[in-house]
């Protein structure tokens, strides 16, 4: 999986060092020197993780985090190290908070830890549920030991839901995360894709994707 990371920092030396270390690990890296540029790159490239300085020109890291509508892991990388600053970051949904100065090697390790927790970085470890195995490495799904033929979007959708079991997502959230913010389709696209997945992973013992009335859908292995 080609994992994309955006670094937003107005100090060129920090961007260069972090980019060098991350690219050595095989990540694709984008950089931005101000908040507006970072938000544009986020919308265009849809990176898998954001490394945001808090005190950016034009738009702060806090405001970037508030502006993004899709779910994406965020690590704040900043000189603002007070307890209140950290609480603000975590309240906004940050996955980690790294204060300057920092060790580039430690930063890479913490980036990998966040990616693993988010299900984006796998070490060949499959996501397993009763009767169902989802393999990120092979981009495959097995039902009762049999490979299930899924389209790329069907796989992305079931993988996304399975990475967040028992979490309800609206149709709008699923459209943004799977098809992109600029997708011209509507909620029926999600409903039709869910219907196809359900037909393909029909199991007499368990159901997996459930409608949450008034909200959308969630993933949970429930005995039929």
Describe the protein's architecture and organization.
This protein is of the alpha/beta class. 40% of the residues lie in helices and 24% in strands. It has helices spanning 12-24, 35-45, 61-67, 83-91, 104-117, 152-163, 171-179, 187-200, and strands spanning 4-8, 28-32, 49-52, 74-78, 96-99, 127-129, 132-135, 140-143, 146-148, 169-170, 206-212, 216-223. It is elongated. It starts with a strand and ends with a strand.
SSE topology string: EHEHEHEHEHEEEEHEHHEE
Helix count from the secondary structure assignment: 8
- Overall shape: elongated
Distance between the termini: 34 Å
* Total DSSP E strands: 12
Which strand order does the major sheet show? Answer: 2-1-3-4-5
The percent range for helix content is: 25-40%
Unreliably modeled segments:
none
Radius of gyration over C-alpha positions, nearest whole angstrom: 19 Å
Structural class, by secondary structure, is alpha/beta
Give the percentage of residues in beta strands: 15-25%
* pLDDT averaged over residues: 86
Biggest sheet overview: 5 strands, parallel
């Amino acid at each position: 999986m080609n994992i994309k990371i955006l670094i937003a920092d107005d100090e060129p030396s920090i961007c260069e060092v972090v980019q060098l270390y991350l690219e050595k690990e095989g990540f694709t890296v984008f950089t931005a020197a101000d908040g507006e540029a970072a938000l544009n790159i986020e919308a265009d490239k849809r990176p898998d993780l954001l490394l945001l300085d808090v005190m950016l020109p034009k738009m702060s890291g806090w405001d970037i985090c508030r502006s993004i509508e899709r779910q994406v892991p965020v690590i704040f990388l900043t000189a603002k190290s007070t307890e209140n600053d950290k609480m603000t970051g975590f309240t906004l949904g940050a996955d980690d908070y790294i204060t300057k100065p920092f060790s580039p090697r430690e930063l890479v390790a913490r980036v990998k830890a966040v990616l693993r927790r988010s299900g984006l970085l796998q070490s060949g470890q499959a996501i397993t549920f009763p009767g169902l195995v989802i393999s990120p490495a092979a981009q495959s799904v097995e039902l009762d030991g049999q490979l299930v033929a899924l389209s790329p979007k069907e796989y992305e959708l079931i993988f996304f839901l399975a990475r967040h079991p028992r979490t309800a997502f609206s149709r709008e959230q699923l459209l943004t995360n799977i098809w992109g913010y600029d997708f011209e389709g509507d909620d029926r696209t999600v409903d039709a894709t869910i219907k196809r997945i359900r037909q393909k992973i029909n199991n007499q013992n368990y159901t997996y994707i459930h409608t949450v009335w008034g909200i959308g859908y969630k993933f949970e292995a429930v005995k039929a």
